[in-house]
Amino acid sequence: MATFRYQQLDVFPATPGGGNPLGVVVDARGLSDAAMQRFARWTNLVETTFLLPPDDAAASYRVRIFTPSREIPFAGHPTIGSAHAALEAGFAVARGDTLIQQCGAGLLPIRVEGAGASRELFVQAPRARVLRRGIDASPPLRAALGDRTLGALPPALLEGGRRWWVAELADEAQVRTWRPDHAAIRALAAAEDGLGLCVFARCRERAFDLVVRAFPAGVGIVEDPASGAANGLIAAYVAQAEPGGALGRGYRVSQGREMGHDAAIRIRIEADGTVWVGGRTRTVIDGTLAWD
User: Fold this and answer.
1) CB 59 within 8 A of CB 1
2) Containing structural domain, residue 88
3) What DSSP assignment string belongs to 121-138?
């Protein structure tokens, strides 16, 4: 039976254990597609990733990302966590302050800022575009949002690495107290061949600017405690809709408290609308995987 280095990480934690768990198999050469999928199903984490040597000379490493049910081209917290593991294991070396990740969404730059426990990693989110906008743009959307009061920006279906419906709610309480109809969100995800629904609201608390909840029913997950991809799409939408607004150059996100987590995600938005999603990551388990 082959052995591999395996790390389990806490990605985007505001407090220890508050982030999104991620399993990373370092140097997964020798594992077949089926073996990777079986292991991802066995870990039962939101995502498990497999680091491989790049086959593009411009890349620092290649990563494959699996949910318990299927392989996906891109996700935010697995990207940040995989970069962390690649650096920690010496599997990749930053060029200056940058790594280049090769994945199903192409080549993505990752900025490395700081060192040690204070190090933060930021991935450049794939360019996003609005496909449709408005509460009546998709028949299942009203049912998915239920009795929630909407905020300033209309709901929108965005595509950029992933496809999500995003909806701004009127205030933080509308997000925090919501008990969504998960069957309705699954129907929305199926209708759009997307991940599901992500809701957000602007906040007045000094520690963060937005509260976010993400429901990726399209890949069989009820709720995600810290979603980099969804936050990247929200940021792209905000940057396009309100380039001169208070959030137009970046902000801080709180996510996961409603499910017993406490994640902190940082968003940076450049003048041309480029979005960077990042935060801290820590290693919780570092050991050996034996897998056939």
Assistant:
1) no
2) 2-125+279-291
3) EEEEPPP-EEEEESTTSS
On whether both 110 and 44 belong to a single domain, the answer is: yes
**145 and 210, same structural domain?**
yes
**pLDDT reading at 191 higher than 80:** yes
Q: How far apart are CA 255 and CA 230, in angstroms?
A: 11
What is the pLDDT averaged over residues 97-122? 94
Q: Do residues 81 and 22 make contact, with C-beta atoms less than 8 angstroms apart?
A: yes
| Rg of the chain, C-alpha, whole Å | 18
- Label the pairing between strands 129-133 and 250-255: unpaired
Percent of the chain residues past pLDDT 70, beyond the cut = 100
**3-class DSSP assignment, residue 280:** coil
Residue 59 sits in a domain of what CATH number? Answer: 3.10.310.10
Same structural domain, 67 and 117: yes
Whether the Cβ atoms of residue 223 and residue 258 lie closer than 8 Å to each other: yes
Q: What's the CA gap between 200 and 252, in Å, rounded?
A: 12
Query: Total domain count for the chain?
Result: 2
